[in-house]
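Ticket reopened. Same input as before:
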Amino acid sequence: MTVPETAAEIARAVNERELSAAAIAAEFEARIHLREAAVGAFLTQTGALALAHAERVDARVRAGEELPLAGVPLAIKDNMCLTGTRTTCGSKILENWTAPYTATAVQRLLDAGALPVGKTNLDEFAMGSSCENSALGTTRNPWDRERVPGGSSGGSVAAVAAGEAVLALGSDTGGSIREPAAFCGVVGFKPTYGRVSRYGLIAFASSLDQIGPVARTVQDAARCYDVMAGHDPLDATSLARPVAATHNGLRDDLRGVRIGLVNEFTLSALGADVRATYERAYADLEGLGADLVDVSLPTADYGVATYYLIAPAECSSNLARFDGMRYGLRVPGADVAETYERTRAAGFGDEVKRRILIGTHALSSGYYDAYYVRAQKARTLIAADFATAFQRCDAIAAPAAASEAFRFAAKSDPYSMYLMDYYTIPMSLAGLPALSVPCGFVTPPDGAHPLPLGLQLTTPLFEERTLLGIAHAYERATMHASVRPPIAANETARV
Amino acid sequence: MTEAPHAGLAVNGTPYESVIGIECHVELRTQTKMFCGCRNVFGAEPNSNVCPTCLGMPGALPVPNRLALELLVKAGLAFGADIPAFSKFDRKNYFYPDMPKDYQISQYDTPLTQGGLVEFWVRDGTRGRCRLTRIHLEEDTGKSSHAGSRDGRIAGSKHSLVDFNRAGVPLMECVSEPDIRTGPQAVAYLETLKRTFVALGVSDVKMEEGSLRCDVNLSLRPLGSSAYGTKTEIKNMNSFRSVERAIESEIARQAALLARGERIVQETRGWDEAAGTTHSMRSKEEAHDYRYFPDPDLSPIAFAGDDIARLRGELGILPNARIERFISDGVPLVQALQLIDTPGLAAYYETAATLSGKPQATLNFVLGDLSRLANETGIPVHASRVTASALAELVALVDAGTINSKTAKDLLGRLWADGGSARTLVESEGLAQVSDPGAIDTVVAEVLAANGKTVADYRAGKTKVLGFLVGSVMKQSRGKANPQLVEERLRAALETTGVS
Ligand SMILES: [Zn+2]
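Engineering reply: fixed in the latest deploy. New output:
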């Protein structure tokens, strides 16, 4: 039989012993082998490890266990630790570093029966919106190989879009799951900050980083989230409050749901086709019974500036440990200081260095109050704006990215790249749960292929169940997610 | 409260005073480290108590040790500090090979405790007090050693080794106001901190193992002036004695400079124990911008009123209160400090004194024979076979006149070796003091009869020989005779009996 396309179906088939996890592991190893040359989603393939896990899953199923992710191929962004496996962050400085332990989120998925098929490419240390900042590989958009997959979780979304994995883990700091999910036509979900443990996620900006699922369907994202979420004693910022299961809260219509459209997020700056797609998406929400209401986020415009102080400030400290002393790249110098300098000069790429410099400056004596403290105040105001907006609505709809996927090297100046995250950063600063769900296609004048767009939905803190429920209703009604890129269009492999 | 007498410091005839503040780093005695589950022990195989978190591995996160937070709050409460409703951890950013993350988790502007007052007794009998600025919590660094250089320092070394066992050990920094004036006061202040932290179980405070490290800030100013002079910071003292010596040396150095009309340079100076002087250190911290900011991996710390009340209740009777009570019981200061500073001794003394109802006699045994036995055998008094109740029994036997002091001393030696009850030994071996005048008179008569020449000497006016005769009677009675009664009966016999 054919391997089903969704995690839900795969887990059912494996749990009912219609399919063996081992056969699925073998099938995906072969599929990755065939497709990687075109996609380049992975930095490290772990087929042997997936098979070893698959055998354990099959044994557990035979022993009568029912596992929510039994036999589900999982790709892991390469900024999450998996013991015994190379974990690079897409950086020369960790190119040959093997993680000595496994991230909590990864461990929970593996315990639930997922099969780790590989570690995926990303912008170096998750800093970027196109995956072009990886020092270790190029990932191509499965819809158009001349275009970027988005970033920073570019490898994870490309793997899922290309059918090289059924689920993937991304990390989202300012949009790093949602923007690439939109570019590659998959579901990308960033939970409330603190819902999923960050233990084992190599930090970029600790107060913003959040692990989340990438999937083909909202239901799969919910299933993955339900397994991962919940308090972790190893992460002091992980939330202790109980997690409501989301996979059984999915709905088919939006009657009685108030969806806010943000006044400040005018669509007039977008391309005509992109704008029309979003307008139709909003109309579709209304068609499902939702009440569309106008809401205002007056401070959202400060999001990008605020983010580019807070995130670099934290990264300048988080990345200090890569100094050539204990692990990773070491370029010896005449003394300790010179070893630090040479190691970091050789090990970090331009964007990482740029953010370390910005952050170091923002925290410096004499500038701290003007930059870091003011940015924190702006962050508080942005969160307050959302709280006010959510008095009038249950969820907010917005674009997940300012455009469809762009060509390689199209955004050569850093600032235009930073603006790609204009619509996703405010939610990150407020810690809110948000996701991107496919909402249609545009064919740009300079491209031959239709390219997907993503609708971003956001709910109040901890309202993941509401968020996924709304997204599921939209997904079912519109069927955009069922369209596959050519490379994954006819998955006929028989197991 | 009397101010300590001043040292009589003068510069070119003008009376000066030294102004001293002390910063202490004290390692907390917790089972595990500050932000991970690794064991917190001294002297383990290098890099044997480490994990991803305390090695600063990519992706590892800190989780605060609640017990360490509570110990620090107790340390503050013991000195009447305020516990602010809001506190947080900050990152202190700088590169150093023994610091795994290249930042130290510390507390910048919101320490766990603020203010407080340390009252202390100086050995000369004066009392003093020093305000605390703050106590905050941070993580210790690893420990570097340098190989290939002659003196183990980094200069000239071929390579360096780092032991991360100490990295992440909870460390409290206790900062004083500049209220200290002399070396002996500084030592008294440190001793008070030490005995309080030990009593609370906060730390073992062993300077030689590095669980207490202190830096001294010192400046001079004309007596009566309220402005501060330029200060120097002195480091590298490894005992209380060296703190006192370093302060004395630095006061002399600064006074000499001022007397010559020279200026004091604000700098860090290292104490050289062998040379007995301080020397200027190339301060690596010069112009350092630590870029403190709140650690985003850690949530703010809040202590509820209930928690604080509970911790206050757990303080017990603090060493200062016990010293106060010893002194009011008539124990001299030096002996009160000896009691309190010998582990277990104060409690032992208090129990025995309460049971016997005779504090002075108990104190004499505790600080006399028992402390001597403890020194000789290496067994602390409170852990010896002489229980506090056995001592109380012995004291009571002496007080009641049942045994004399010589018997008591002998018995104490036997109790120390074998344990048991003084009363049982006295009864089973007939060691009770003989206080029956008739029985003593019989022995007296025997001794006088056997020592005719001595008796004649006495009667001829050489009354010193009485001691010899008393000793002879005691010996004849196998030590059991009541010595006062023996002397009384001897005198009576010598002066009233005309025959020999
Ligand atoms: Zn550890």
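The pocket of zinc ion is lined by residues B 33, 36, 38, 50-51, 53-54, 168 (CB under 6 Å). The two ends of chain A are 5 Å apart (CA to CA). Please confirm and we'll close it.
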